[in-house]
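Weekly sync, protein design subgroup
Attendees: M.S., D.O., the rotation student, P.L. (late)

Item 1: inverse folding check
M.S. brought a backbone from last month's batch and wanted to see whether the design step gives back something sensible before we order anything. D.O. pointed out we never logged the input encoding, so this time it goes straight into the notes. Structure tokens as presented (218 positions):
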């Protein structure tokens, strides 16, 4: 299976889950701003008309998109593990976490702050909303080690990525410490950062003319 990804994009959550599940993927990088594969071999919207990452190309050439669906697909490859939670109740907590991460944290905050051309008013509103959104996450975690319970799940992978990007936008993560620190210390998260940080710098240099002001300064 091959993952179409961009460094520091939400596809990082998929990388973290693949690592935690022990699923081997090959990775193909996308230049999201240039809308082409980073290897220069093709126009990205031809591969994914949504123009977004992640996209998982399955071995039979079928495709799967949406972080929440892809991480659950990969978690199912490790049925003896508990990446979807250790009980029925936890599984629903995991779904709750994925949904909150995808909508309230990713789209309401991070996407607005990172999107090229998002209006200043929208960014201001996202920044103002951030403390309350992170306080909701903290309340949901409720002092447990991970979002759904005692063990790491796919919901934690989505939050791990979200907190990494939130820090690049200098959002205040106080309400979710020490959850964010616990996630950052996981080997699967540390490995994802180690791989993607140099790729992000190279990607930025390649697309600089298209990006304009760095997203993390907006
Ligand atoms: N609903 C999608 C959102 C994916 C998404 O927003 N990806 C961003 C990177 S984090 C992207 O590809 N942005 C480029 C664009 O929207 O054109 C999912 O959950 O996978």
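Designed sequence read out in the meeting:
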């Amino acid at each position: 299976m091959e993952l179409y990804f961009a460094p520091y994009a939400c596809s990082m959550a998929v990388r973290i889950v693949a690592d935690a599940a022990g699923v081997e993927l090959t990775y193909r990088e996308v230049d999201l701003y240039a809308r082409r594969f980073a290897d220069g071999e093709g126009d990205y919207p031809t591969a994914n008309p949504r123009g977004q990452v992640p996209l998982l190309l399955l071995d039979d050439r079928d495709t799967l998109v949406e972080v929440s669906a892809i991480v659950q697909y990969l978690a199912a490859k490790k049925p003896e593990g508990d990446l979807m939670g250790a009980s029925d109740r936890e599984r629903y907590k995991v779904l709750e976490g994925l949904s909150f991460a995808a909508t309230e944290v990713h789209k309401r905050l991070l996407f607005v702050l990172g999107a090229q051309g998002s209006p200043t008013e929208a960014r201001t509103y996202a920044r103002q909303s951030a403390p309350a959104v992170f306080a909701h996450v903290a309340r949901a975690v409720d002092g447990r080690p991970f979002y759904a319970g005692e063990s790491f799940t796919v919901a934690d992978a989505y939050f791990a990525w979200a907190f990494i990007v939130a820090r690049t936008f200098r959002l205040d993560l106080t309400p979710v410490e020490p959850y964010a620190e616990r996630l950052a210390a996981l080997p699967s998260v540390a490995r994802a950062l180690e791989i993607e940080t140099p790729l992000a710098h190279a990607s930025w240099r390649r697309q600089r003319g298209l990006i304009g002001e760095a997203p993390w300064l907006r």
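Discussion: Residues 17 and 207 are 28 Å apart (CA to CA). The chain is about 55% helix and 10% strand.
Action: P.L. to compare against the previous round before Friday.
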